[in-house]
Amino acid sequence: MKTDSVIKILFIENSVEDAEQIITLLRNAGIAVRPARATTPEQIHSALEELGPDLVLFNPGVNGLPLRSVAQQIDASSRDIALITCVTKIDDQSVADMFQDGVQGVGSRSQPKQMIAVIKREFDSLNTRRQVRRLESALRESERRCDALLDSSNDPIAYVHEGMHVRANRSYLDTFGYEDYDDLLGLPVLDLIGPADAEAFKNLLRALSRGEKAEYRLELHARRADGTTFPATAEFAHATFEGEACLQIVFRRQQVDAALVEQLQRDPVTGLFNRARTLEFIDNAVAAASEGRKGQSLLLIEPDNWAHIVSGVGLGKADELLAAFAHRVSMLLGQEDVAGLLAEHTIGVILRTDSDEAIREWIGGLQQAISREIFDLGNQSITLTVSIGGSLLGEKNANTEMLLNQASQALRSAQSQGGNRSDLHDPAAREKADAERERNWLGLLRQALTQNEFVLYHQQCISLQDAEGDYSEILLRMNGPQGEVLPGFFMPIAEKHGLNAEIDRWVLSQAIIALKSRERSGLPTTFFVKLTADSLQQQGTLLPWLDRVLKQANLKNGRLVLEMTESKVVTMLRPAQEFINAWKKLGGYFALEQFGSGLNSFQLLNHINADYLKIDRSFMADLPQHPENQKKISEICQQAHEMKRMAVAEWVEDAASTSLLFACGVDFVQGNFLQEPQRLAVTV
């Protein structure tokens, strides 16, 4: 499990203290937790929607909440969530009963290490399942590409590993004038490129092997075994061969007629896409769902009593009837919808809609259109009814085989009810609720920005070296429908919709107003204010604005310390460096949060001119019991002081740790043990 992973946990506990005990246990183990607590089915439903937990930790002692009903409620949400019970005593029969009721793990409160191991295991399993769904889609895509292009293709195709041939098809051998693949084995692909294009080809291979962004097509002259050349287009794709990463290279001597390709992908009777192409579209939809795309569904459509109808009209008219039926289905498709023939008389439709109601309206409209239609077949006229089975596509069922099985079962269910019916399987009923929740939060965020409904708190940073003045960390909250909300709930939505920079400005403006008020009251204060990555992209407007506002407030230099996490600065080193240098020219100060979490954090200071180093909180957990952490903190402080930087220890939770940090040479300490966050008074 990644140490920086945040586990979203829903605690079903009678008391806050019991939940806090486990939260503290996890945080002391270096596991970041985003918790919520529920004690009723209604609260569980709300938490499943708002928090979107990874794990649910259930106390069997919660009154009025049977384990089986909790498991059913979680399963009904269609989210991939692990249910773990937390018990005081473990015995064989109770464990067997709990697993029978739907739990994935049992943790013992009296064995903290076992409890942590179970939570880590289930969180890792959850991440693995998510990754497997994505990989299954990618694997199917790779296998299909190999099957379709290699041996049966007329295009010359080869697989290249570290510049050497490892596989090639017959067309490739014929094109380049080789009799047998053994003649190519171990031959550098560069030997088959004309001298004038060799350098460009080599540079492109090098860029692709490093994962750099590059064009996947190259116009060049290829060289045959006899030394003659011919113009070609080389197309590249990442692939694997016998478990090794490699490049697939296709040499195209002429462009394929797009109209011919389109014709080959169509069923000759109905004009719809053929089975192979339809399955490709389904695979693509599954891949998109595994990456988070919503609003997709697969429908299987069949005329009722098809065998009886065909026997009545005759086989000669069956194709004509199927074509007319397919045409009626096609008339109702939207621009993004896809229809294809999956079996003899089964039409598959990938429908892209925004809501369940729109899907059901489309199904109802198709059934009405078919039932009202009179199909003329020579001297005969008949009517049809249709059965439709489908499955909504979400992350949880992002698997082609599973999706087809779910839609097929729904179709058989509709047909078993007498035909002219529809049945829709929804594997992710809560996904739509999540989308609605996100829209609601987005509205609340925009309202908070326009109506000043954000709230600032401050937590004091206490100087251990008798620094003058007051130092505090600024913390953001938002007024929600049921009280104040922590940033962990709304900042991811703000980031997704590009509101982070705007929120940063609001926080900065309020912090500057509070600083000015404190200056007038004779209380000189320094504020640490977090900055998001989005603000770095707007430094051209943010810094002039900051300069103007600070001058208007007549604040002394250094009263405002902007801070960002070390990991974020590393990933945005160039813009961060430019921003910090410009900010320092204005007299500002800068702090690096989570310092020491990288492999060589001090190397970063060669590029980033930070004044304060806020030591990563993982070093603070049970500090008196971990001498290796004490040693690491001492080393950080010593190097920081040699470089004339201040060291700040966050998340200090006990007196013993404070004494140790003083001995280590820490300049400032901060934590709930020293002071709980307090509401920041902002008066103009």
UniProtKB/TrEMBL annotation:
Any single Pfam family the record assigns to this protein: EAL
Domain GGDEF residues, every copy: 294-427
Keywords: Coiled coil
Domain (EAL): residue spans on this chain: 438-684
Entry coiled-coil feature ranges: 125-152
UniProt keyword Coiled coil, yes or no: yes
Superkingdom, natural source: Bacteria
Protein name: EAL domain-containing protein
Natural source organism: Dyella lipolytica
